[in-house]
């Protein structure tokens, strides 16, 4: 989640604030992981009900489905950051960045 935040910050430096994040894949099978990501990023997370989206898309393509006929408006769950947890995650993220910087320096010296 902290590395996702680093990536989000890099993207926002290039394009401006990103208001909401879409999350797909196996990690969406649990509500815990998307909630952690929402708290770390301090952004709402839209969780697709189709957790295996890559397989689903590949199967539709293999069946000859045209992407323009796909229903892209499938309902999604929306998880919002929990303010008390955001504050804790902010502190931990700062620690993560310090450790990341130390480890980067360590490996550059090798």
Descriptive key words:
110 residues; mainly alpha; three-stranded mixed sheet; 3 strands
Describe this structure as you would to a colleague.
- The chain contains 4 helices and 3 strands, in the order αβαβαβα.
- The longest helix is centred in the last third of the chain and has 26 residues, at 83-108.
- It has helices at 2-15, 32-41, 53-62, 83-108; strands at residues 21-23, 45-48, 76-79.
- It has a 3-stranded mixed β-sheet, covered by helices on one side.
- By secondary structure, the protein is mostly helical.
What would you call the quaternary organization? single chain
Count the helices. How many?
A: 4
Structural class estimated from helices and strands: mainly alpha
Beta strands, count: 3
Computed CA radius of gyration, to the nearest angstrom: 17 Å
Strand order of the largest sheet: 1-2-3
* Proportion in β-strands: 5-15%
What is the topology?
Blueprint: H1 2-15, E1 21-23, H2 32-41, E2 45-48, H3 53-62, E3 76-79, H4 83-108
Parallel strand pairs: 1-2
Antiparallel strand pairs: 2-3
Can you describe this structure in just a few lines?
The protein has 110 residues and is mainly alpha-helical.
